[in-house]
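Dear colleagues,

As part of the handover before I leave the project, I'm documenting each prediction I ran so the next person doesn't have to rerun anything. This entry is a single chain, and its sequence is reproduced below.
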Amino acid sequence: MFGFVRPLRGELKVREWERFQSVYCGLCHTTRRHYGLMQTVMLSYDCTYLALVLDALEPDGGGNCKKRCIMHPLRRRNCACESAGMLRAAAVSVILTWHKLQDTIADERGWKRFGAKLLGLFLRRGYRKAARDLPGFDRSTHTELLRLGELEQQKTASLDRPADAFAGILRAAVAGYGTQGRVLEEMFYHTGRWIYLIDACDDIAEDFQSGSYNPVILRWGLEQPSLEPVKQEMNHTLMQSLAASYHAYVLLQLYRDTGIIENILCQGLPEVTRQVLDGTFLNNGGKNRHGSI
């Protein structure tokens, strides 16, 4: 995941922000308990969003407890109780981290490649357990990343084809989950499409300089590292994805946390869209501040 999925904190009630933080802490504790301490280093708000949505589908979810951790050893903090949704999100986080690591090993050279290999030694055991817990998602992630890699090698000048491959990964993350699995698949498919495209927009300057594959550059034939010529068009396609995700969301039957989820969908993600397209995203909270990969 990439660290773009976040609430607009200023529009949340205090209790809603505390609840969101407790889900983050709960996901961290769940990941550590089932897959190892090292896996929590890569935890992101993106998977916190997944945990929040899945937990909201459970009639018996929403419980809180107090726990200590390495980051807060002296004072116990509010922590969402472990649930089926939390377990699913933890396994998804571990599997995504592993495949991202393998992608780094394949693409990078020098110290970056060495560092990824070294980190892989510590994460392998947790990944294998997560792959046993969610074998279908692990296979789907591998398949879609291979498809995405082929499109990148072909320098495909399309927004939809690579975005579809990445979106398929998030769709697989919720495939078959409970009685509302089909709606969840639609919701997270479009969220995944938005994540891929917003990441491509955010990487314009870096990819332009390095010559790395970027579908936005190729689709519009950009001759300079700026989104200004295509800002309106990209805003349109990004907001279409968010609208489709929201239209699926309203079909879900949730037991709690609708205020937080709607804040993320209707305020947090549009605000990230605005910041990335304006070139101010790094100056407004920054990226990779919560272990996103």
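The CA atoms of residues 102 and 116 lie 8 Å apart. The first strand starts at residue 64 and ends at 67.

All the best with the project,
I.
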